[in-house]
Structures are given as structure tokens and as C-alpha cells.
Amino acid sequence: MSDPHRFRAWLAALPPSRLVDWIEQASVAYRPLAIAMEAEQKRSPTGTVELTATREAIRELTEPPAHATWRQASEIGNAAALICLLLEHAIADGGDGAVVELIEFALQRTEHLAMAVHDSEDWSGTLFEQLSGIHLKACRQACPDRVQLARRWHRLLGQSELGAFARFPRGYEEILGENGLAEWNRLTG
């Protein structure tokens, strides 16, 4: 797709029945899209933020293949990138602290996938960056417990092998406040 804005405008101008046809065929042809769309469908029929299906979709989209060549790395990264859309929608639907923790789960799973797949295209770096931005946005919206956030990220940092959690607490100072920063400094001091 050479011009994503033009493509999006074309999609918006399609009659709904034709758009449904295209989406249905795309989800059949591209299994990761079907996984993400099914999670979205299960999550929002009542207007509530029910995250079990989203968590399962993240798990499925980040499951490393039994064998992958370097040529498949970009395709694997594109499939995992659907996670960002699912999480953005969960935030938009009024997600709370559970969404914050779900994003942390997505970061862990993405790191697990990146370790299992040769990442010559650096899709994981881009995806970590996007997920980190989504996490910060979710924290601003949900206002999670500051001390618990610092403790979780300290634990996640200790488990991380690729540094997906290494930038914390930069950018989180306002969210953590004095209590969260004091706990972070105590844990890392």
C-alpha cells in the first residue's frame, strides 16, 4: 500500500456491504486479523471492557512459530502489531487498571516472541515503542496505584531479557508521584 491515507479514504467511501465483504475475506486470508477481530467482538458486545478474549488474542498473536526463517520475521511482526489496535480500543472503551496490566502482559509476550524470532527488520523495537506509548496513555487514564505500578515494573524489569521495560520511570514521574518514585528508588537503590 503506497498511500495509507488514500487507502483509508477509499475504505471509508465503500458501501457497508462491500466493506464487510472485504473485511471478511481479509480475515480469512490473514489469520492474525481474524484473531484480533474475534477478540474485539467478544470484548465489546455489552459496552463493557471484558479483557479475557483480548488477553487470549495477545497470547495467540505472540506465540512463536515452531520454526521461522529471517524472511518471515517481518510478517510475524506485522501480526503482533495488531495487539496495539486491540489495546488502543480497550483504552478508548474506558479501560482501567486491568488494561494497564494487560499492556504489561503484551510487552512481556512481545519480548518472548522477539527472542524466538530473528528480528532483522527490528519490528520488535518499533512494537515495544508503540506498546510503551500505549501503556503511558493507559496509566494517565486509569491512574493505577502508584506504589503497585513501581513494584510491578521493577519485577518486570528484573525478568526482562531485551530491555522492554528499561526506560521506566522516564515519562512516568507525574503518574508515579512522590510515593511511587520513592518506592521505585527504594527498589532500585
3D structure, described in words:
The protein is 72% helix and 0% strand. It has 189 residues and is mainly alpha-helical. The chain has a domain at 58-144. The longest helix is centred in the middle third of the chain and has 20 residues, at 73-92. The model has no long low-confidence stretch (mean pLDDT 86).
End-to-end C-alpha gap? 49 Å
- Structural class by sheet pairing and helices: mainly alpha
Q: Report the strand count.
A: 0
> Rounded to an integer, what's the Rg over CA atoms?
18 Å
Order of helices and strands: HHHHHHHHH
Topology:
Blueprint: H1 4-13, H2 16-29, H3 31-43, H4 52-61, H5 73-92, H6 97-116, H7 123-142, H8 146-159, H9 173-188
Helix pairs in contact: 2-3, 3-4, 3-5, 4-5, 5-6, 5-7, 6-7, 8-9
Pick out its properties.
globular; 72% helix; mainly alpha; 189 residues
In short:
By secondary structure, the protein is mainly α. It has helices at 4-13, 16-29, 31-43, 52-61, 73-92, 97-116, 123-142, 146-159, 173-188. It has a domain at 58-144.
